[in-house]
Amino acid sequence: MTTFASPTQGGASRSLWKVEAVPGAEGPVHDFDSEQVWSWIAGAATVELGGETFSVGAGDTVVMPARTVRRVLADPAAGYTAVVTAAAGARALAPDGADYGTPPWIA
Fold first, then answer.
1. Could you give all domains of the chain from N- to C-terminal order, each with its CATH number?
2. Rounded to whole angstroms, what are the CA distances from 76 to 19, 28, 63?
3. Are 10 and 56 in contact (CB under 8 A)?
């Protein structure tokens, strides 16, 4: 994760960061308390979102609603790079609702 904007970097009301996932990387099953918007700029991924599965690649955008369990799996050959935005201070949640807190790239 590379943070481009966040409250700790000058008081932004939204956080903006880049995700670079190596080929075959598997993100955790989790949730967030606010909407996230993911835009893929390179590579490809499979997005599991709210019980549905989507194949995405460079040029695709996925709006991930708040309180919707998700997981992002990088393409096994290419990995991916995406730019993501969410409300500043968004909190990560376990699928059962347990609060993981605010990830450092959003704070």
1. 2-94 (2.60.120.10)
2. 16, 16, 23
3. no
pTM of the model: 0.93
Nearest to 24 by CA among 75, 98, 93, 89: 75
Residue 4, both tokens: 């481009």
Query: pLDDT at residue 65 above 90?
Result: yes
Q: Which residues pair with 55 in a beta bridge?
A: 46
Cα–Cα distance, 99 to 16 (Å, whole number): 21
pLDDT in tens, 16-36: 999 999 999 999 999 999 999
Distance of CA 82 to the CA centre of its chain: 8
